[in-house]
Design goal:
The protein has helices at 38-46, 76-91, 149-166, 180-185, 200-203, 205-218, 241-255, 280-286, 299-308, 318-322, 326-332, 344-347, 360-366, and strands at residues 9-11, 14-16, 20-22, 52-59, 96-101, 118-119, 128-131, 134-137, 142-143, 171-174, 223-227, 259-263, 291-294, 313-316. By secondary structure, it is α/β, with parallel strands linked by helices. Strand 12, helix 8 and strand 13 (291-294) form a beta-alpha-beta unit. Helix 3 packs parallel to helix 6. It is globular, with a radius of gyration of 19 Å. Residues 269-274 have low confidence and may be disordered.
Length: 367
């Protein structure tokens, strides 16, 4: 029944042996300064059976990083530490791309010396930020001036260059989930009246410029983009989602990125439920490269959507947390281990709930 998931696929220039991808998962295990820890090398190596690992969201700059103990890719120390992680994945036969992240308005000032975060416009995210001192209200962002956009593009380029130095197989632009690129795309957070606001072409301009910059470093076949075209995410929404995400698809089609990943939330998704129509069919009709769908999939549902042609591959998130050998479990029809002690184990420091989940082979003898 799951045979469709085990046909090799070319994700742009990346040859994946199966269609079960590991979705980006923030886990909060980096050392101080956003330096990847030794634990992270073990964690990713354990999951190298994925057709492709998309790394946890990784900050492109201090300005854009606002999650406790999340890794970065803007310093030499971070880059050197990522080399250890990537080498561990490659030694286990895996492939891994770095997801490049700027959080925009959801960076709390505590992370940036008390300064206001940047966004498309001077707006404020709903809810609370996670900081090293606990939950705090978000702050109102300052609108990013046009004359600072070249500096932002340089930040993305530096992170992409560092990803090359670290040995990654490519990069993914995080343009989803209410973070900076998404804040520029959608009308609830983009109130601009300049070249980056108003029309769908203008609101997709930053997406295009950042993607082109990444392609100039990596080549189109090793650049992918993640979008979330399905309702409110962290207070970011759009009055006409088909129009803006159709434009985003046209931009990515013209550039020829290696693949596009879409978050498809179910009724109990991490970033909230959605009752709006999914936009994957619209995007599929415009973007002709490999399309990867994500969120709340079962193995059977994943196999069905790949077999039907709705998707070319599926990225699994939470199932990879407690099943380091998820691919083999799906291949053999074995039961999946449940996540325990969640959500604490998702983000709390330490090995518990991170690298201590046994594979099926290890669990059977123990039982």
């Amino acid at each position: 029944m799951v045979d469709s998931l085990f046909t090799p696929i070319a994700l742009g220039a990346i040859a994946a042996p199966n269609r079960i991808l590991m979705a980006p998962l923030t886990r909060g295990r980096a050392d101080p300064g956003g330096v990847p820890s030794t634990m992270m090398a073990t964690y990713y190596r354990q999951r190298a059976g994925a057709g492709l690992i998309i790394s946890e969201a990784t900050g492109i700059s201090r300005e854009g990083a606002g999650w406790p103990h999340a890794p970065g890719l803007w310093t030499p120390e971070q880059t050197e530490a990522w080399k250890r992680v990537v080498a561990a994945v490659h030694a286990a036969g895996g492939r891994i791309v770095a997801q490049l992240w700027h959080m925009g308005r959801v960076v709390h000032p505590d992370f940036i010396d008390g300064k206001a975060p940047v966004s498309a416009s001077a707006t404020r995210a709903p809810g609370h930020a996670h900081t090293l001192q606990g939950r705090k209200d978000y702050a109102t962002a300052r609108a990013l001036p046009i004359d600072e956009i070249p500096r932002l593009l340089d930040d993305y380029a530096l992170a992409a260059e560092n990803a090359r130095l670290a040995g990654f197989d490519g990069v993914q632009l995080h343009a989803a989930n209410g973070y900076l690129i998404d804040q520029f795309l959608r009308t609830s957070s983009n109130l601009r009246e300049d070249a980056y606001g108003g029309t769908v072409e203008n609101r997709a301009r930053l997406l295009r410029e950042v993607t082109e910059r990444l392609v100039s470093i990596w080549g189109a076949g090793r650049v992918s983009v993640r979008l979330s075209p399905n309702g409110d995410t962290q207070g970011v929404d759009d009055s006409a989602p088909a129009a803006i995400f159709g434009e985003a698809a046209r931009v990515l089609q013209a550039i020829g990125v290696g693949f596009v990943e879409l978050r498809q939330p179910g009724p109990h998704g991490t970033f909230g439920a959605t009752t709006v129509p999914q936009q994957d069919a619209l995007i599929r009709a415009i973007y002709t490269g490999p399309l990867v769908l994500n969120s709340d999939y079962t193995p059977a549902g994943a196999a069905a959507d790949v077999a039907s042609g709705r998707a070319d591959a599926i990225s699994f998130g939470r199932p990879f947390i407690s099943n380091p050998d998820l691919v083999e479990r799906i291949r053999t029809g074995a039961a999946l281990a449940p996540n325990v002690d969640v959500p604490n184990s998702w983000y709390f420091p330490g090995e518990k709930g991170y690298i201590d989940y046994p594979t099926l082979a290890e669990a059977v003898p123990a039982a």
